[in-house]
Amino acid sequence: MLFRIVFISAGPLCALVAYRTVVRRAVLSRGWRAFAGVLLAAGAMKFTWYAVFGGNAFVPELPAAAILAMSAVYGATIFLAAGGVAWAAWDAAAGRIRRRRTAQAAPQGREGGVPGRGADVCTRRRFVAGALAFGSAGISLCGVHEGTRLPDVKETTLEFPDLPPEFDGYRIVQLSDLHISAAARADRTAGIARLACTLRPDLVAITGDIVDGRTDRRMEDVRPLAGLRARDGVFGCTGNHEYYSGYGEWRRVFGECGIDMIEDSVRAIRRGGGAIALFGENDPAAELAGLSSDIGPAARRRDVPAGAFRILLAHRPIRMEEHASHGMRLQLSGHTHGGAAVGMDRIVALANEGHVRGVYRECGMTLYVNAGTGQWAGFPSRFGVAPEISLLTLRRA
Question: What's 195's domain CATH number?
């Protein structure tokens, strides 16, 4: 509920701020002010339009172009509000300086107005307002492009002294937060699968939030994941969005695509005398479906190979102390989208025990947080945080 309130109220609030700090200060005619106000209000109501015309405020079934266009306008409204606040603060500071200088000059007989000053102020304000409007639109369009393009490959080497020598150089391709939806269709899914295969992985790990939407709508957009190939297989764990989208049906579809969904269980991968025990933890949202999200029982199973190097797939980058107590050496997570924007990452980290993207070493284990291979349709934008496919190379050191 808090999530819904924040996202639905943020747009109208920013539209009001943008109107008061930019439109009203731009010295426009009444007609132009009304036009700008209507445009801001329409852009701020993106989630309302999603609900009315797309059937769902957060998972709309609309043409991709419509979703991305509305998201660009919504983003521009937010940036315009931020720019308007900065402009108002600058003007307030400049006004105080001018008044101080005027007060100091008054005793010396230099008071009085400057001819034509009113017209100059109007021109300057209109120029600043126009620059803010165009700048906000440009930044928002770039953010939508960055959020929907094919991801970068980010290569990272992770060293462990207890890695079995048979797995030295083991290559894991991690995908996370694909968010396959009406805004991210089959062509993008296929492009990601092809790119992942070119990396010649030993194992592909998909750490949740694969899809947004029901199987009758999104099945064909998910199908290209069947093209993923790895020597030891393709494995996945659930994210919170799987349970919002009817995971009971998606479990079967993922299996048909060759994805082995590990649900609070374990898989053994053997090479010679060494072994990796690959665990999967259900997302805490599994409780919505009456399922557990506790890796403990699986970690204590007798069929886990003795001395196996333990790797955990867990959607959220949390509970490291608990996972370390079960012998996990490496945890692969997502969920945060890397914060999606520079500056926002610090806020997102606070909600995820300080983890937002990249490598963390805590509690005697290593955590890698993928910054997100895709982006949720509700906010398909990124600003300074690129989408990624993680190529993780394990080394014995």
Answer: 3.60.21.10
